[in-house]
Amino acid sequence: MPKVGIIYNDGKPTAERVAEQMQHWLERQGCTVRTTTGSGGILGYANPHDGVPLVPIESLVPQEFERDLAFVIVLGGDGTVLAACRQVAPYALPVLTVNTGHMGFLTELYLSHWEESLGLVLAGQYVIEQRSMMAVRVFDPERTLLWEALALNEMVLHREPLTSMCHFEIKIGRHSPVDVAADGVILSTPTGSTAYALSAGGPVIEPGIPVWQLVPICPHSMASRALVFANTETTVITPANRHRLVLVADGNAGCYIYPDYSVVVERSPYPARFVRLNYGEFFQVLREKLGWGLPHVAKPTSVELP
Questions:
Q1: What whole-number distance in Å separates Cα of residue 185 and Cα of residue 6?
Q2: Is 128:226 a contact under the CB 8 Å cutoff?
Q3: Residue 78 a catalytic site member
């Protein structure tokens, strides 16, 4: 029988309890189980001026996990899923996501039928869906690498606090650089197009399309709008500000960006791999989670009074 990993949110009693139940159930099926928490994928905020050591992308894989794990169960909400993908992507481990949070946009299963669903996965009745991740790196003026992280949703760069205008020089691949004046900028994957980028006015992008989108946050110019481009292009963002900014990756990792620093974003060679019991139906998820495309309800027919 296969080896199986479990990553759970140790801040949620339900996730911790179900992780223990799943471990016992899997072991009764003859599986070898490795467990850890999602906290290893939450990097917090680094300040390069404090001499914080670089944490390489590949170093976040839990010590308990081997490359031959058949799959990894992730118990938590979307935040736990984002952190877990950062932990397992370098080993190309598929993740089976179980929702114990609220929105659960990235999760595959609910808790009510987990035994039946795990039985199907152990029987090989599943497919793998790959989603692109971005590698975000911060360099100082001497081109020394200071910080790096994987992001499944987005990278956000903004003022601290987010209350005044910032200026950015943005170069996408071979194209000429552009200047953007805004409260901040979001660089999003298709997966992240339904997260912060959507709230900032960006389009929803089907996950299989190999693109990034750049969304200015409250831009100063009406000409600065969301831009979609191939994710084969390297994006370099250089802030033109006298004050430090804050870079946030997937909401649970970040780095302070000082004047003359540059942020370089590329498509990661490590995609996120999701276990799906059925082929993904993206529009159905949009309807269930965001209410997109619900049938129109006509107004009541007017009645003429006598």
A1: 34
A2: no
A3: yes
CA neighbor of 210 nearest in space, from 228, 187, 185: 228
pTM here? 0.91
Residue 32 has pLDDT above 80, yes or no: yes
Q: Which CATH code, of 3.30.565.10, 3.40.50.740, 2.60.200.30, 3.20.10.10, is assigned to 134-267?
A: 2.60.200.30
Q: Pairing relation of β-strands 32-37 and 262-267?
A: unpaired
The residue from 10, 68, 78, 179 that is catalytic is 78
pLDDT band at residue 294 using 50, 70 and 90 as cut-offs: confident
248 is written with which tokens? 């946030």
Q: Domain 3-132+270-290 classified CATH 3.40.50.360?
A: no
Is residue 69 within 8 A of residue 93, CB to CB? The reply is yes
Alpha helices in the chain (DSSP H): 13-28, 78-88, 114-122, 196-199, 282-290
Domain definitions of the chain by residue range: 3-132+270-290, 134-267
Q: What is the pLDDT of residues 226-263, one digit of tens each?
A: 999 999 999 999 999 888 999 999 998 899 999 999 99
Contacts 24+ apart (CB under 8 A), 171-180: 171/235, 171/236, 171/238, 172/214, 172/229, 172/233, 172/234, 172/235, 173/229, 173/230, 173/232, 173/233, 173/234, 173/235, 174/233, 175/233, 179/240, 180/216, 180/219, 180/224
